[in-house]
Amino acid sequence: MSKKKVLITGAAGSIGQVLREGLKDRYDLRVLYNRTVLPQQENEEIRVGDITDLGLMEDVVDGCDAVIHMAGNPSVQASFEDVHHQNSLGTYCLYEACVRRKCPRVIFASTNHVTGEYEKEGIYTTPDMPVRPDSFYGASKAHGEALGRYYTDNFGLAVICLRIGSFQPVASVTGRTGDRILSTWLSHRDTVQLCWRGIETEEIKFGIYYGISGNKRGYWSIQSAIDELGYAPEDNAEDHA
């Protein structure tokens, strides 16, 4: 049986690089770069271009079974103009290209900042609570989630939204006590697992899930990811603190 063809956008970013390594044996990878192009790995196609170029994106997604959409501006301090272009317009172009070229599934990199105002008030948060973004960045990702829901309902595109926490290597939590990262940490291998489970759980056509490891102090619920995607986190920040 042939492997699925999976596109990773934003492949030069910190998460994109981990996914390239972690998924290379599971899938045939196609990676999209914009400004920075990394050396080609075995079992990998390289494409270069701007996520906001719809015509280009149609060509890039053509023949893919799924997309892991990591491209965009990740800065909480970013201006409205920056996130509107890279995040909102870029995500639209990706969804639209997938529909036009019949790529059935997208794993959308959302963010915990979609509900960042709850965190400021110390409120334990589940994915079904109303969004309360803490920045233009968070609002742009909330838009990506809502746009994904629209594309699921109207065009049948499956969209799995992962509200990513603090994506960091193990060294970032080693020796830490009482810090935010002990609640919000997402390890490299748990990131990889969330993405492949989002791809393989084909019965789920739309879902929003918090992307953190199995942290004892976690204040975002990952229960729906466990129940619906079969997520089984391998890491807990407390084990490394």
Characterization of this structure:
It is built from eight helices and nine strands. By secondary structure, it is of the alpha/beta class. The chain has a single domain, classed as NAD(P)-binding Rossmann-like Domain (Rossmann fold). It is globular.
List the helices and strands and how they pair.
Elements: E1 5-9, H1 14-23, E2 28-33, E3 44-48, H2 54-61, E4 66-69, H3 80-100, E5 105-111, H4 116-120, H5 136-155, E6 158-164, E7 166-167, H6 181-184, E8 185-186, H7 188-200, E9 206-211, H8 223-229
Parallel strand pairs: 1-2, 1-4, 2-3, 4-5, 5-6, 6-9, 7-8
Helix pairs in contact: 1-7, 2-3, 3-5
Entry keywords:
241 residues, alpha/beta, Rossmann fold, seven-stranded parallel beta sheet, two-stranded parallel ribbon, 8 helices, 9 strands, 37% helix
What is the average of the pLDDT values? 97
Share in helix: 25-40%
Strand content: 15-25%
Q: What is the fold-level CATH name, i.e. the topology?
A: Rossmann fold
CATH class: Alpha Beta
Element string (H = helix, E = strand): EHEEHEHEHHEEHEHEH
Distance between the termini: 42 Å
Radius of gyration: 17 Å
- Secondary structure tally, helices: 8
Low-pLDDT ranges: none
Could you say which overall geometry the principal axes of the C-alpha atoms support?
globular
Write down the domain tally. 1
Instruction: Count every beta strand, where a strand is a DSSP E run of 2 or more residues.
Output: 9
Write the CATH architecture name.
3-Layer(aba) Sandwich
Order of strands across the widest beta sheet? 3-2-1-4-5-6-9
CATH superfamily (homologous) name: NAD(P)-binding Rossmann-like Domain
Oligomer: single chain
What structural class should be given to the helix and strand makeup?
alpha/beta
